Amino acid sequence: MNHMQETLLRCRQDxxxxxxxxxxxxxxxxxxPVARVGEYLESGVDVLELGLPYEKPALDGAVVRDSMKRAxxxxxAEAALKSIGSLxxxxxxxxxxxxxxxxxxxxxxxxxxxxxxxxxGADGAMSPNASDKQTEELGLALExxxxxxxxxxxxxxxxxxAADIAHSAKGYVFVQAQDGKTGVQxxxxxxxxxxxxLLRSCSEDIPLYAGxxxxxxxxxxTLIDMGADGVIVGSxxxxxxxxxxxxxxxxxxxxxxxNQARY
Length: 263
Description:
Number of domains: 1
Radius of gyration: 17 Å
Helix content: 40-55%
CATH class: Alpha Beta
């Protein structure tokens, strides 16, 4: 079983709620990447979701779009992918997962992308905008390299799609918590709870983490009450870094999850 897969399943068995933190590779505003990732981990992030920069990030709101624009001024997606190696060297036991648009994978080449991901030290990769066929191909190519592919569950989810996602996901399922792009939102739509219940009815074993728009303890409490095993936070962490308060902010998310785990 893959390292990240083992770690996340063990956490779920132990009742630990997971914090996935999105880290935009190559964005100079994030500071030294090794130091910043160290801060993420020390503050309570369990999984690093490593974002490759892309020119047309259709699923992302302004904060991530601006971050990717800054990153592309420094290096392209392929160089950013290679840079994961320095993070693996610094943090040999960290859970490192690539988040990318499928156009990047196509540009690099599917097999080459997966080989590069393995060589860099990633545990797996996810591509939310991939078609069903592309998702299947990516999963197989990653598996050949000993890597895993978490799955993305869209906001508008039917039973057939939920069953496919729950049964094929490796590591976890990313449950879209808002109908729209990434970026800070208020509240959690009831539909998210319905989707979590639907996915859980298809598989008792796969961890379910909710992301998109998550920024505060109140949202975390709601999602855990809905049955989520953890949360994925991106835009608000980037904003906290830019404001110089990322360590305090990430620690507050960790505390909210730990309090809910004991609730």
